[in-house]
Structure formats: C-alpha cells, structure tokens
Amino acid sequence: MRWLTLTLVVLILALQYPLWFGKGSWFRVWQLDRQVAEQHVATQQLLARNSALSAEVRDLKLGNDAIEERARNELGMIRNGEVFFQLLEPARAG
C-alpha cells in the first residue's frame, strides 16, 4: 500500500510540473501579464506625447500665434519697435 501511495504522489507531482513550471505555466502567465501592463503604460505615455505633438503641428499649420510664440521663446526674437526687458533674480548668498 505504501508503494501505491508513493507512486500516486509522484504521478500527481509529475502531472503538476507543467502547470507550474512548463511553457504555459502560471509563472509564465504572470510574467507575460506584468510585461503587458508595463507595455500598456509605455503605450499610454507615447499616445499622450503623440497627441501633444499633433496639437502643436496643427497650431503651427493654422495660426501665426504659435509661430510667434516659438520665435519669441526659443529664438529670442522681438518685433520691430518693441523693447525687450529681461528681469534677473538677485543671486542668493550661500
């Protein structure tokens, strides 16, 4: 009777091995689920960035306000007749 019990336990363990450690195991499913979640976060970030870039392109194509803003902020350009004032914060001691 003892051999029969031991044989059945070994058989059950042999049948359970693929479920826990095989190619389609729970551990592998957990890893893939985690990778899918990470990829979903990355995709959402890229979608937000693409949406912002698309809005910026649309603004640059349709209006002069966006072009003027970029010229002022990035290139330091001013219009004819304008006076540019730059305010500097005093240096902190220490």
TrEMBL record:
Residues 22-94 are periplasmic. Part of a complex composed of FtsB, FtsL and FtsQ. Belongs to the FtsB family. One of its GO terms (biological process) is cell division. Keywords: Cell cycle, Cell division, Cell inner membrane, Cell membrane, Membrane, Transmembrane, Transmembrane helix. It is found in: Cell inner membrane. This is Cell division protein FtsB. It is a single-pass type II membrane protein. HAMAP family: FtsB. Essential cell division protein. May link together the upstream cell division proteins, which are predominantly cytoplasmic, with the downstream cell division proteins, which are predominantly periplasmic. It comes from the Bacteria. It comes from Crenobacter oryzisoli. Residues 1-3 are cytoplasmic.
